[in-house]
C-alpha cells in the first residue's frame, strides 16, 4: 500500500460508533490521564496533611453534591413529565396510538398501540416508588399500567386520580391492599384548551 | 318549497348538532372478592351493589337505566382498558350512552367502591370512588356513588351538572278509634339507622338520600307494636309519609306514600307483631340479599 493509498483509506473511513456511556465517561478519563502524567514533587509533611484533608473535604462535598443532584434529577422527572410538554409532542407524533410515556431505570420510552385505538383524554402522571425502584408514567384515564407486578387501572374524575386493581387501591388520601407498601403520587397533566390530537380525537 | 327544504335538510341537521340530552346508563355487576364479602357479611356483594346502583341511578333525572352490561364481556373488566371501538359497539348493542363497571374492596372502615364510567361514543373513560365512613349505611354509600357516576356521565355528554336533593319521610298520628291512646305509624329505622324514641318523634322528618332504601315502620296504639319493613326507591326531593288503616278487630295495614298527594309508593301491608329490628336483623347483613 502506497502512502497515498493509505492516506485515502484513512480519510474515507468513518469514525467507529461509540456507545453513549463512552462519551459520558470521556471527560473523566481525560482528567485521569492528565493526573497520571503529573509527577508529584516532594512536599513538606504538613503540606501533605493539608492536601489530604482538602482532598477528603472535596470528596465529601462532591459526594453530597452528587447525591443531591441525583435526587433532584429524579424528582424533576415527575415535574417535567407532568407539565404536558412531552405528552403534547408525543401525541402529535402518535395521535390515537400513545398508551403511555414511561420513565424508569432503563430510561425513557413510549408505549404505543398497534392501531389508533386509545382514548387520549384526561392525561395523568403517576410516580411509583417501590423500595429503590422508581417509575414515572404519563398515561390516560382508563389505561392500565404495571405496578409491582400487578395490572392497575388509572382513573380520573377530572380532579382526583384513582389507581385500582385486584387487591389494590390508591387515592391521594388512602391506600388499600398492595398499594399500602408503595409510595405513590399522581397528578393530572394539563394539555391546554387549544391542543387537539390529530386522529381519534376524544375530547 | 322553502318550508319543505327547511324540513328536509335544516331541521335534521339541527337535531344532529344539538348535544344528546338522554343519558342511558348500562351497569355491569361489580367485581368483589372474598375479603369484601367477609367484611360486609354476605356473598356476591359486587352483584348486590350493582343492583342497588341501577335503582339509584334510575331516579336521577335525566338518566335512564338500560342493560345490564354483561360482566362476562371482556370490556367490562375493570383492569382492562376499553378501546373507543369496543365502547361504541357495547353502547350500540345495549342502547346505552354510558357504560359503568367497577369493583368493591375491603377498606379500614367498610367497603370502598370504585366505578369506571365510559362514554360509549368516544371511549372516554373516567372514574370515581366512594369510601365508607363509620356508621354510614351501604344504601347511602351507593347513593353517593350514583350521584357521582351521574355527574360524570352528564359531563361527558356536555350536559350541565345535576343536583339531586335528599328526600324525607315522617309518620302519622291519629286520635285512637279503638282505644284511648293515639294511634301512631312511624319510622323505626332507615337502613339500620335507628330513630330513637320513634313513637313520640313520629313527626320528625328522616332524610333519605336519593335511591333504594330499607325503611322499617311501626304501628303503635298504646298497647301493641306492629312492624313492617319496606324497600322502596326514594325520588330526589320527594316527601314521604308512613300511613295506616286500622279496621275494627283487624291488624293495622301500613304503607309508605307521598306526603303531598297521598298516593302510595309501596304496597299496603299488614303489620306484624315483631321485635325491634335492631334485635332481629344485623343491618350489615341486609343489603347483599337485595
Tell me the overall shape of chain A.
extended
From the N-terminal CA to the C-terminal CA of chain A, the straight-line distance is 68 Å
User: How many helices of chain A in DSSP terms?
Assistant: 4
Structural class of chain A: alpha+beta
- Biggest sheet architecture of chain B: 5 strands, mixed
Query: How many runs of DSSP E, i.e. beta strands of chain B?
Result: 15
Q: What spatial form of chain B do the alpha-carbon principal axes imply?
A: elongated
Number of domains of chain B: 2
Given this structure, which CATH class of the largest domain in chain B is correct? Alpha Beta
Give the strand line-up of the largest sheet of chain A: 2-1-4-3-10
Give the averaged pLDDT of chain B, no decimals: 81
Beta-strand content bin of chain A: 25-35%
Give the biggest beta sheet of chain A.
5 strands, antiparallel
Q: What name does CATH use for the topology of the largest domain in chain B? A: Rossmann fold
Please outline what is shown here.
The complex is a heterodimer of chains A (203) and B (290). By secondary structure, chain A is of the alpha+beta class.
What would you note in describing this structure?
The complex is a heterodimer of chains A (203) and B (290). With 203 residues, chain A is an alpha+beta fold. Chain A has a domain at 80-188. Chain A is built from four helices and ten strands. In chain A, strand 5 (144-147) and strand 6 form a beta hairpin. The radius of gyration of chain A is 26 Å and the shape is extended. Chain A starts with a helix and ends in a 15-residue tail after the last strand. Mean pLDDT of chain A is 71; it is low at 26-42, 63-73 and 197-203. Chain B has 290 residues and is an alpha+beta fold. In chain B, the strands form three sheets. A five-stranded mixed sheet of chain B has the order 2-1-3-4-5. Chain B has a five-stranded mixed sheet with strand order 10-6-13-14-15, with no helix packed on it. In chain B, strands 7, 8, 9, 11 and 12 form a five-stranded antiparallel sheet that branches. Chain B is 24% helix and 32% strand. In chain B, helix 3 packs across helix 5 (138-156). Chain B has helices spanning 2-17, 34-40, 45-58, 84-94, 138-156, 277-280, and strands at residues 23-28, 63-69, 98-106, 111-119, 125-131, 167-170, 172-174, 183-190, 193-194, 206-208, 211-220, 225-234, 239-245, 253-258, 269-270. Residues 5-18 and 275-290 of chain B have low confidence and may be disordered. Chain B folds into two domains: 20-156, 3-Layer(aba) Sandwich (Rossmann fold); 167-289, no CATH class. Chain B is elongated. Chain B contains six helices and 15 strands. Chain A binds chain B through residues 99, 117-119, 121-122, 140-144, 151-153, 155-158, 160, 162, 164-167, 169, 171, 174, 176-177, 200, 202-203, and chain B through 33, 35, 78-85, 87, 103, 105-108, 112, 114, 116, 118, 122-129, 131, 148, 152, 155.
Amino acid at each position: 500500500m502506497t502512502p497515498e493509498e493509505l492516506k485515502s483509506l484513512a480519510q474515507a473511513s468513518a469514525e467507529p460508533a461509540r456507545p453513549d456511556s463512552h462519551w459520558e465517561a470521556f471527560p473523566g478519563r481525560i482528567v485521569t490521564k492528565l493526573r497520571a502524567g503529573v509527577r508529584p514533587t516532594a512536599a513538606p509533611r504538613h503540606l501533605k496533611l493539608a492536601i489530604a484533608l482538602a482532598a477528603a473535604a472535596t470528596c465529601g462535598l462532591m459526594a453530597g453534591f452528587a447525591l443531591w443532584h441525583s435526587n433532584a434529577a429524579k424528582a424533576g422527572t415527575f415535574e417535567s413529565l407532568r407539565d404536558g410538554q412531552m405528552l403534547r409532542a408525543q401525541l402529535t407524533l402518535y395521535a390515537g396510538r400513545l398508551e403511555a410515556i414511561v420513565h424508569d431505570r432503563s430510561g425513557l420510552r413510549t408505549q404505543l398501540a398497534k392501531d389508533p385505538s386509545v382514548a387520549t383524554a384526561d392525561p395523568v402522571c403517576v410516580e411509583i416508588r417501590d423500595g429503590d425502584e422508581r417509575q414515572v408514567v404519563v398515561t390516560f384515564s382508563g389505561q392500565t399500567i404495571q405496578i409491582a407486578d400487578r395490572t392497575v387501572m388509572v382513573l380520573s374524575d377530572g380532579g382526583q386520580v384513582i389507581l385500582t386493581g385486584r387487591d389494590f387501591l390508591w387515592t391521594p388520601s388512602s391506600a388499600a391492599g398492595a398499594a399500602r407498601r408503595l409510595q405513590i403520587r399522581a397528578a393530572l397533566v394539563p394539555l391546554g384548551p387549544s391542543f387537539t390530537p390529530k386522529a381519534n380525537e376524544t375530547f | 318549497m322553502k318550508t319543505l327544504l327547511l324540513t328536509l335538510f335544516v331541521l335534521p341537521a339541527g337535531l344532529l348538532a344539538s348535544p344528546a340530552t338522554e343519558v342511558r346508563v348500562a351497569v355491569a355487576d361489580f367485581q368483589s372478592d372474598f375479603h369484601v364479602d367477609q367484611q360486609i357479611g354476605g356473598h356476591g356483594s359486587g352483584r348486590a351493589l350493582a343492583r342497588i346502583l341501577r335503582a339509584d341511578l334510575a331516579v336521577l333525572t335525566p338518566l335512564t337505566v338500560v342493560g345490564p352490561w354483561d360482566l362476562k364481556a371482556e370490556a367490562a373488566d375493570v383492569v382492562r382498558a376499553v378501546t373507543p371501538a369496543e365502547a361504541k359497539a357495547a353502547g350500540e348493542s345495549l342502547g346505552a350512552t354510558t357504560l359503568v363497571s367497577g369493583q368493591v374492596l375491603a377498606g379500614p372502615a367498610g367497603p370502598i367502591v370504585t366505578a369506571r364510567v365510559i362514554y360509549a361514543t368516544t371511549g372516554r373513560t373516567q372514574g370515581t370512588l366512594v369510601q365508607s365512613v363509620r356508621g354510614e349505611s351501604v344504601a347511602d354509600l351507593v347513593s353517593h356513588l350514583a350521584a357521582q357516576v351521574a355527574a360524570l356521565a352528564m359531563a361527558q355528554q356536555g350536559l350541565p351538572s345535576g343536583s339531586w336533593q335528599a328526600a324525607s319521610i315522617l309518620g302519622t298520628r291519629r286520635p285512637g278509634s279503638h282505644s284511648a291512646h293515639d294511634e301512631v305509624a312511624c319510622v323505626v329505622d332507615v337502613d339500620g339507622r335507628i330513630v330513637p324514641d320513634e313513637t313520640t318523634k313520629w313527626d320528625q322528618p328522616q332524610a333519605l338520600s336519593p335511591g333504594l332504601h330499607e325503611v322499617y315502620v311501626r304501628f303503635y296504639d298504646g298497647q301493641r307494636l306492629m312492624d313492617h319493613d319496606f324497600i322502596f326507591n326514594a325520588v330526589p326531593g320527594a316527601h314521604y309519609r308512613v300511613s295506616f288503616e286500622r279496621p275494627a278487630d283487624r291488624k293495622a295495614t301500613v304503607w309508605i306514600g307521598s306526603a303531598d298527594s297521598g298516593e302510595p309508593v309501596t304496597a299496603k301491608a299488614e303489620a306484624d307483631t315483631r321485635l325491634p329490628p335492631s334485635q332481629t336483623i344485623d343491618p350489615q347483613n341486609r343489603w347483599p340479599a337485595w
